[in-house]
Design goal:
By secondary structure, the protein is mainly alpha-helical. The protein is built from five helices and no strands.
Length: 175
């Protein structure tokens, strides 16, 4: 997996540079730059509209007490699509636009779920009362907290009437 990511990080910029050279040679520099800017604006617009629709769908799923796993995956795909469309390049724009298409996201979700299911290990551990606990009488009682007071010095506890019960130093003497 690390090797795949390394190759991807090397290959994508090379493909983007080659596409910039080819398309720039065919239509010129300024139209090429215009297309890159237009796809960034289109990506931001699509991300906003589809992102809000996905958020509404997720809220509806939560209202039905259903975990919105499809909506979470769609939201992740839309975030990646938006990032790809904001990245200058034709290859990243094409992949980003594909991720905005719902059937493409659904197919990707199914493939990823099958991949994870084939490689996942599940350990089930039971929790609860064990059979080795002892039955016995229940002892009812009262208790009084006798732990040492953890108040800072100079802040004595007050009685229920708000006055403290500690002796006061005689008047005229600083304590």
């Amino acid at each position: 997996m690390v090797g795949f990511l390394f190759i991807l990080l090397l290959a994508v910029p090379i493909v983007e540079i080659a596409l910039f050279i080819e398309i720039g040679g065919l239509i010129g520099v300024w139209p090429t730059i215009g297309i890159v800017i237009a796809t960034a604006i289109a990506g931001a617009t699509l991300l906003r509209s589809q992102g809000l629709a996905t958020l509404r769908s997720a809220r509806a799923s939560l209202a039905e007490n259903r975990f919105p796993i499809d909506e979470v995956f769609d939201g992740l795909c839309l975030a990646v699509a938006g990032a790809l469309l904001l990245t200058p390049g034709f290859f990243t724009d094409a992949v980003g636009l594909l991720l905005f298409v719902h059937p493409v996201r659904a197919a990707l979700r199914r493939r990823l779920a099958a991949y994870v299911a084939a490689r996942a290990e599940v350990d089930i551990h039971a929790a609860g009362a064990s059979a080795d606990w002892q039955e016995g009488p229940v002892i009812d009682g009262e208790y009084r907290d006798v732990s040492p007071d953890r108040r800072p010095p100079g802040n004595p506890p007050a009685d229920s009437d708000g006055r403290d019960s500690l002796p006061k130093p005689p008047p005229g003497r600083d304590g």
